[in-house]
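Appendix B, record 7
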Amino acid sequence: MIMASSPRNVFLQGGNTTEFSEPVLKLRRLPFSAPLGSPYIKAADRPRAPISCSAVADKMPATVGGALDSNSLTTRRLMTQTFIDQAELMTVSSTGKFGRFGGKFVPETLISCLSKLEAEFILALHDENFQEELATALRDYVGRESPLYFAKRLTDYYKNSEGKGPEIYLKREDLVHTGAHKINNAIAQAMLAKRIGRKRIVAATGAGQHGVATAAACAKLSLECTIFMGSADVGRQGANVLLIKNLGAQVKVVDGSFKEAMSEAIRDWVGDLETSYFLSGTAVGPHPCPTIVREFQSVIGKETRKQAEEKWGGKPDVLVACVGSGSNALGMFHEFIRDEDVRLIGVEAAGVGLDSGAHSATLARGDVGVYHGSMSYLLQDEEGQIIGPHSIGVGLEYPGVSPELSFLKDNGRAEFYAVTDDEALDAYRRLCQLEGIFPALEASHALAYLEKLCPGLEDGAKVVVNCSGRGDKDAATVYKHNEERV
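Structure tokens (predicted):
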């Protein structure tokens, strides 16, 4: 495959390419490189002795790509910390690999920038002031924790002729501020950007929920905000475009859809690395971007565990989430990866059919390649060129997927299925009429899989579906398609 020669373009194409690397801080050999907080590292493999700040500082030059200035902000933060848990430090990988997936397929000019971002991210996770500020924002601004709602009428709908069936619960991310799970990550990353002195935020959005969440977070924190959005998506998500503008952000329209908007946002960021911050809303891109998004979204699963214990004194039996690029699925799944008795089910968009070529089922029909800076499953042709995805749920239209979800597919820990546009539309209408809740079309894909899942489950099995966003943004689309089907 012929790659563009400009460093602004070299990692924006699909297919296979060469990974640029850097010196890696290796404290011991692991079966594979696992990013911060990875549940794949067994407790028995974790050392118990803490590591001192001075020891961290001594080793940091290899991580951040250069010697530390004793007067720099990063050095001061390092030296004012008392301890960093060595077990977590061990799981930090400068390449961010999940088996063969992930990594940093970027120009050398970006390696230092990404490594410094990783270092600041690690420090923020161990900074009590940052964590307290984030916890306050999640509680008082975002509106967490979101309810774990027992969907009684939906539960009754799926009972068999003997009155038996699973119990269905919804994790109500649709109720948080701005109407979707995207705000969890947006407010946290905006705080991180401000912490490291960035004044301008750049982001890309498809369905518009990440754009709205990022614009809201930037308004709250007094940050300049530019949102890139594909022309196809602007036409379908006009209400969210207006919200983004009302929140004070600039909207830049790009020919195409989300994948083109993502590429333009990255180009914009690469052209202004000193003052800009690329706020990814998806668990894709070069390391540490997928890890940052997953970590800030993991609050969903952590709350789910706590709420399940409170409601029925145990864990869920099955977790179900839609899969576009992976942020809401990983936010739900990550907490339970070690719990092998909990099934993890991701639901992709089959569009108008898996054999039609018009779908977004990357894990079901994709091949391994590199896109937007990391290796994962991709929708690509025989020459490694990206195939345009399709879904009625705009937020699922991305030709790649999270490296971590790609790994979970290959090792069999998670199951992945696909449902069509029509099945998602039916699920949208079903939840509206049975529970008085209008889910986003993206979340409707997860709800649609209940049709196939529930008949095979034991009576009383606890199923939690991540209702990742609300569907008022999709009401016109649903109405139009229902009229056409009639």
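Remarks on this record: The mean pLDDT is 85. Residues 108-125 form the longest helix (18 residues).
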